[in-house]
What does this fold into?
Amino acid sequence: MPKFAKTPEPPYYAVIFTSVRRDDGYAQVAERMVELASQQPGFLGVESVRGADGFGITVSYWTSEEAIAAWKANVEHLAVQEKGKQKWYEHYDLRVAKVNRAYSKPAA
Amino acid sequence: MPKFAKTPEPPYYAVIFTSVRRDDGYAQVAERMVELASQQPGFLGVESVRGADGFGITVSYWTSEEAIAAWKANVEHLAVQEKGKQKWYEHYDLRVAKVNRAYSKPAA
It folds into this structure.
């Protein structure tokens, strides 16, 4: 999967997820979640980095709020969300935002 | 500076900056930019991670679009933006988004 998400012209939506992970039994699950998300209607792409200290930022991009709600309600994803809360994440913040403008270099 | 930004109840704004950095003569400049941004009116916080491969995500949070525009127009920041385009970044994407909802663990 490429590092940069290829997103269309705004508007579209972003889910900004910042977290500190408690252990590293999660790498395979994270890969599976990206695979699963990318099969969801309205998925546009994902960008993700985690530092050696366990702090990470993942931003996923979606066509609509409805697409985000459907992904949140995905049964396999729900189970992982629960395990994330109980086990993997010391702390996280999740923000849902509407992207209104975008710039890049080189220009798309 | 703490890893997680302490942001108020939405709505507020986020600038999502994803990039690949070409060289590492930038660390001090990045620190200075965070210091300078945090003195700007309307600055709420910043979260940033860069991987060993040079790919990074920085999200800064702001009270308003006007605050973002003022930061973009800051003279010292403008010079760094230009150098970033010319020298430091192979590629970047910058997205301006309005945060409508936020959740966290533990609940704030």
Chain B touches chain A at residues 3-5, 7, 10, 14, 16, 18, 20, 47-51, 55-57, 59, 85, 89, 91-106 (CB under 8 Å). Strands of chain B lie at 12-21, 43-50, 55-62, 89-105. Residues 1 and 21 of chain B are 22 Å apart (CA to CA).
